[in-house]
Amino acid sequence: MTIHETIKEVQEQFKDVLKNARDPLMLEEVKNTFLGRKGKIAGFFSMIGEVPPDTRKEVGKMLNELKRSLNEQLELRYAEFQSEKKQKERVDYTLPGYVVHKGSRHPLTQAVDDMLSIFKRLGFDIAYGPEVETDWFNFESLNFPPNHPARDMQDTFYTEGGGLLRTHTSPVQTRYMAIHEPPVRIVAPGRVYRNEAISARSYCLFHQIEGLYIDTDISFADLKGTIELFCRMYYGKDVKIKFRTSYFPFTEPSAEIDVSCFLCKGKGCRVCKNTGWLEIMGCGMVDPNVLKVINYDTEKYTGYAFGLGVERMVMMRLGINDIRILFENDVEFLRQF
Ligand code: PHE
User: Fold this and answer.
1) How far apart are the first and last CA of the chain?
2) CB of residue 173 inside a 6 A radius of ligand 1
3) How does pLDDT run across 15-51, given as a tens digit for each residue?
4) Which residues, at least 6 apart from 114, have a Cβ–Cβ distance to it below 8 Å?
5) CATH homologous superfamily for 107-334?
6) Ligand 1 atom at minimum distance from 254 CA
């Protein structure tokens, strides 16, 4: 094989491997095999002594030229990799950005927080109780005797272990009093559950805020004053309040409270069913039987309790006529708040 043929063959080989190099790392390998210190070209240079002396100069020139040409091709390939990489990294600043939706508090959470902060300003502490209750706390301790028809007022979900899902937040009253001495002044927010047919007006779960104030010399006038103040602070000072007599086993006397409809200002509309009034809570003076259960001195202490329904208030405020929308977590609905 003449020197020309050898050079040609090396060039062909080089072209081949260069074409197959898929990344800069493979390129590095190619460079080593051909142009490295122990590479093919270096090998040729070391054999130059074996060439007849009169052609040595020419062969040397040819090898130098080969080396230069291979180097050049390598450089070009490197440059190609570089620009491909840049191409991939390029950002098009004219494209529209991604929309990041901020989360927000659920309207029910917002309402509970607003109401609690009003009660805190009025001097109430916040207390919590479990959602899975015992019959004793949910009914018995609250003066519902066994088989008393008043239990039917609240359709109860029972658990397998003999417990139940609390039907109201009132068990927090006895739970709290059982471990605190009077004076007691608390509000207790939370979920309650009732096994009712689901409709636009009732759902299997909803929220209540329970209120309880026990001290010496607490009267119905204190209850009325507090509720009036709360309603003014929550709905605005023009709101009208009405107490209707009612019945609960754990309060005596008992009342239900209506407020003038927020939407029509008492004129009558779809939300208030044309009555101009909306029922928002039950309340009354705590029955001495309840205080006896937790060993409070009924000669010394009296108090009031109330339980308000949060969903009612929120639906009224937002003009919503189907309670279920508050539990569906439809983002299109929630995004409005
Ligand atoms: N627990 C009653 C209910 O859910 C409401 C209530 C609470 C009434 C406290 C009087 C006093 O219907």
Assistant:
1) 86
2) no
3) 998 888 888 888 889 899 888 888 888 888 888 888 8
4) 234
5) Bira Bifunctional Protein; Domain 2 (3.30.930.10)
6) 10
